[in-house]
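## retry 2 of 3
previous attempt timed out at serialization; input unchanged, resubmitting
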Amino acid sequence: MFIISLSYQGPCFAIAVLLHFSLLATWGWSVIEAVSMYLLLVRVYNVSMRHFMTKATVCSYASAGLIVIASVIYSHVTASGTGLPLTENYT
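## retry succeeded, writing output
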């Protein structure tokens, strides 16, 4: 609240976006490691995927980036008051 009270909303927004992206990317890498461990330890047969780490990197960072971009667009649309209200006012 201290940053918002000093009207540093730009840096606060940037830190929030970076934090959101890094947490989603970390979660994505946890999923990738779980799939990798499953393929190595549980599957008995010789399973090899070509360029697994390249595909995993693109999927992890791209999905985190898309979610962050969608969140930023949604927050901008709802904050401007021109669309997508969270609640309807019927009074």
